[in-house]
Amino acid sequence: MVGVTEVVTNTAPPLRDEAAAAAAGAALASGVRIRTLAEVADLAAVSRLFESIWRPPPGNPLVTAELLRAMATAGNYVAGAFDGPELLGACFGFFGEPAKGGLHSHIAGVATTGHGRGIGFALKLHQRAWALRQGVAVISWTFDPLVRRNAHFNLTKLAARPVRYLPDFYGPMQDGINGTGDTDRLMVAWDLASPSVRTAAAGRPDRVDAAALRARGAAVALAAGPDGGPVTGAADAPVVLVAVPPDIEALRRTDPDQGRAWRVALREVLGGLLAGGASVTGFDRAGWYVVAREHSS
């Protein structure tokens, strides 16, 4: 469980109303209806959707309908985004310590046919509004820090903040997205009532400009070399930039060795910075983590 999680004992109704309105607006903009799910037929559809996205090996489903049924019955979060009868996206999470004060969002995915419509954003805002009604202050989840679009979505569009780098968190997964390599993850915390999250939910996220930061003296601790491979530099400034490749999933298919090299480099550089007390303050869509060092020499 993320250490910053705490229970919201008196979430102000205006915040709950604001979150519900933001979630409704995002769903309307994406053209879907989002609802929590508990019936077996709906949960089986969620399981099939996740299988179609991640393409796990036979006999190793990401999540079964039976497990989702148990999770939903126990009061956890399972929701789907529908365009008419078609399920285009789903998300599920479960409560954690202390005493159901935190929610861990385990899986969220959108079908290929739903890409580009903002369905993922709508699902997360629905989850936020639901969690606030349960008295939850922070939602945590993990993502692959090498996947550029996910880093931008999580850190910029949602304003979540990394709290820990987790090497090979799940072990071998061997699905259509993760491949056969190590499954390093960033654990993020989404502080549901923070000013940055509230403005992001309203569609006005804070953005960072890596080029401008570099012009003002930010150090480049990891960048892409002429061949596209990772090149490390000195993290010797108060603000540090850490690059990721444009499309790690394609790279894993076309050049597995270079994909592994990026994994090792990011683990050493970004993981090392976080372990040393630095914090990620944002992500530039051009492919840069912006890191603030706690102490600079």
Compile the SSE list and pairings.
Layout (H helix, E strand, L loop, with lengths): L12 H18 L2 E4 L3 H15 L10 H9 L3 E7 L2 E11 L5 E9 L8 H15 L4 E6 L4 H10 L3 E6 L18 E7 L3 H7 L8 H6 L3 E6 L5 E3 L6 E5 L4 H7 L1 H20 L3 E6 L3 E5 L5
Parallel strand pairs: 4-5, 8-10
Antiparallel strand pairs: 1-2, 2-3, 3-4, 5-7, 6-7, 8-9, 10-12, 11-12
Helix pairs in contact: 1-4, 2-3, 8-9
InterPro entries: Acyl_CoA_acyltransferase, GNAT_N_AcTrfase_prd
Protein name: N-acetyltransferase domain-containing protein
Calculate Rg over CA atoms: 19 Å
Major β-sheet annotation: 7 strands, mixed
Strand fraction: 25-35%
Q: Count of DSSP helices?
A: 9
Q: Tell me the name of the CATH class of the largest domain.
A: Alpha Beta
Subunit arrangement of the protein: single chain
Overall geometry comes to globular
Beta strands, count: 12
Protein name: N-acetyltransferase domain-containing protein
Organism: Amycolatopsis mediterranei (strain S699)
What would your notes on this structure say?
This is N-acetyltransferase domain-containing protein. This protein is α+β, with helices and mostly antiparallel strands. It folds into two domains: 13-201, Gcn5-related N-acetyltransferase (GNAT) (Aminopeptidase, 3-Layer(aba) Sandwich); 210-292, no CATH class. It has helices at 13-30, 40-54, 65-73, 119-133, 148-157, 195-201, 210-215, 248-254, 256-275; strands at 33-36, 77-83, 86-96, 102-110, 138-143, 161-166, 185-191, 219-224, 230-232, 239-243, 279-284, 288-292. It has a seven-stranded mixed beta sheet, with helices on both faces. A five-stranded mixed beta sheet has the order 9-8-10-12-11. It is globular. The model is unreliable at 1-11 (pLDDT under 50).
